[in-house]
Specification:
Blueprint: H1 7-10, H2 24-34, H3 39-49, H4 55-68, H5 101-117, H6 122-134, H7 141-156, H8 171-175, H9 178-193, H10 196-205, H11 223-232, H12 236-263, H13 268-281, H14 286-299, H15 307-320, H16 322-326, H17 332-348, H18 356-365, H19 371-381, H20 387-416
């Protein structure tokens, strides 16, 4: 009983760690009795022992024990002094905890309480986990699975950041597929307590959302293998997140190159050719390219602050680049998206609000927008931003288009008769 206060180091590791001398009989007795303790008792033990032990000095050993059950040697093996009669591996640790999310969360609470109680242990805790991740090859498959489950839970609890997963991208772990297996189970453990949107946010914060492809062995590092693996593991949401992240990155690249070309006063034909090449290279849709062109065109001009001048300036600029815009329109979705983007642009730049209808009419006359897209925008496809103002502005054009459509329908009926 007297030696119970030294449990975090003494019982989970041999007495030489803290330079205490106890008999093998006492050590064994306390060790066996401790196996009956529950996790909250371990938490209490660690809390009270911290008052007498210098956790700063033994932090690495302590966390080695709580994760792996003993002091880890380089490579991941448990250090032993060679005496088979002395227990050197604890039963109460992550590696020995039942592979159940509920049980593992309970053990996670031990870490949570310990780190809140002794804040100076937060950095050593993260450092020890990152060290252990480098030793994956030295653990059994069962131990890796339990460590992955615990890691996902610890990230979900906010005790460690996803940044620590960067250590899984080591060549030896990636090459043998260990990194892919491990990180998959980390993600499954995480979304078991949260959701894929939260996981996406954690990965972005950790700076690894754009590196996920690199966790696949080089011979399988393709989009097809990536999607097959993670969708097969039940992580379809993660695949969608990664595709969105890739698309966002590709759009930034295209926008940067497009801005540079427009700023250099390149002719429309040259810009169009470059956009087509970039679209194919980065696997972007017509809608993506069309909206990027609009954004770059409207940010490349220094607009006048006078409404009468800005109207003429904007219409001339749009008319000049209508051929470029029309190269990527033609699809209802792309045209409707462009109309919404123009609506929002005019709403956010008040000097353009009064010429929205003139811009739309010009784009209609230059075959950038088709009748169907304009009518769909008016019916239900518009944005809520400035809705009443822009609907009123476009009402005469809508009436004209609808009447023209009815007349055309009547003429077709007469021809059939």
């Amino acid at each position: 009983v007297v030696y119970c206060q030294y449990w975090p180091i003494l019982i989970l590791w041999h007495c030489s760690v803290v330079k205490l001398m106890v008999s093998d009989c006492l050590l064994c007795d306390v060790y066996l009795r401790f196996m009956l303790f529950l996790n909250f008792q371990l938490t209490k033990f660690l809390d009270t022992s911290g008052n007498s032990l210098n956790y700063r000095r033994y932090a690495e050993v302590l966390f080695d024990i709580l994760f792996a059950g003993g002091m880890l040697a380089p490579g991941g093996s448990i250090v032993s002094d060679g005496d088979p009669d002395k227990p050197v591996k604890a039963t109460l640790c992550v590696f020995q905890t039942q592979a159940d999310s509920g049980k593992m969360r309970e053990f996670g609470q031990v870490f949570d309480y310990l780190l809140r109680r002794y804040k100076y242990l937060q950095v050593p805790f993260v450092e020890d986990l990152e060290k252990i991740l480098k030793f994956l090859k030295g653990f059994s498959e069962e131990e890796r699975d339990r460590l992955a489950m615990a890691t996902g839970i610890l990230i979900g609890m906010g005790l460690v950041q996803a940044t620590s997963l960067n250590h899984l991208f080591s060549e030896h772990l990636v090459k043998e597929g260990l990194a892919l297996q491990f990180i998959t189970k980390v993600f499954l453990s995480y979304i078991n307590m949260k959701d894929v949107n939260s996981l996406a946010a954690a990965l972005r914060k950790g700076g690894i959302s754009g590196k996920l492809m690199d966790v696949l062995p080089s011979t399988r590092r393709t989009q097809e293998h990536f999607e097959t693996h993670f969708r097969g593991a039940g992580l379809g949401g993660l695949v969608d997140m990664y595709r969105n992240h890739q698309a966002a990155g590709n759009k930034k690249i295209v926008e940067s190159q497009l801005t540079e070309l427009v700023s250099s006063d390149a002719d429309v034909a040259e810009i169009k050719a470059m956009c087509l090449d970039l679209q194919k290279k980065h696997d972007l849709q017509d809608t993506d390219i069309l909206l990027l062109i609009w954004k770059v065109l409207m940010t490349s001009v220094e607009w006048s602050k006078k409404e009468d001048i800005i109207a003429d300036q904007a219409l001339k600029h749009i008319n000049k680049n209508a051929t470029l815009l029309s190269a990527f329109s033609g699809q209802p979705r792309a045209e409707l998206s462009l109309m919404v983007k123009i609506q929002e642009y005019c709403y956010e730049h008040v000097n353009f609000m009064k010429i929205f209808h003139r811009m739309i009419m010009l784009l209609y006359k230059t075959d950038v927008l088709q009748e169907s897209a304009i009518l769909q925008w008016h019916k239900s496809g518009h944005s809520s931003k400035g809705k009443s103002v822009f609907l009123d502005q476009l009402k005469p054009m809508i009436d004209w288009l609808e009447n023209a459509e009815e007349e055309s329908s009547e003429e077709d009926d007469e021809e059939e008769d």
